[in-house]
Design goal:
flat
Length: 89
């Protein structure tokens, strides 16, 4: 049983080393290929995101009466405590 554990540990460590080496080589290749493609002006880039015209929070914060600020998205209990402590609301 002891020998089996030794063999399993060796295989596990070897697997980790190989994985690190492969990941490192793949990363280096990807970086080199990126710069090669950039130099050839072969990269096409386009925005894959868009911003909403407005933000609507799913939950609103507790109203802080007589506040100069409008109610906004839900705030944590800590934020509420600080606001009430400093502004007495």
């Amino acid at each position: 049983m002891h020998n089996v554990n030794i063999v399993l540990n060796i295989l596990t460590n070897t697997t980790k080393l190989l994985r690190r080496k492969i990941d490192g080589l793949a990363g280096n290749y990807a970086e080199q290929e990126f710069f090669r493609q950039r130099e050839k002006d072969a990269l096409m880039m386009q925005a894959m995101y868009s911003f909403k015209t407005s933000i609507a929070p799913t939950e609103l914060a507790t109203s802080l009466g007589k506040s100069l600020y409008e109610r906004e998205g839900k705030i944590s209990d800590f934020e509420t405590m600080i606001l009430r402590k400093n502004f007495g609301r």
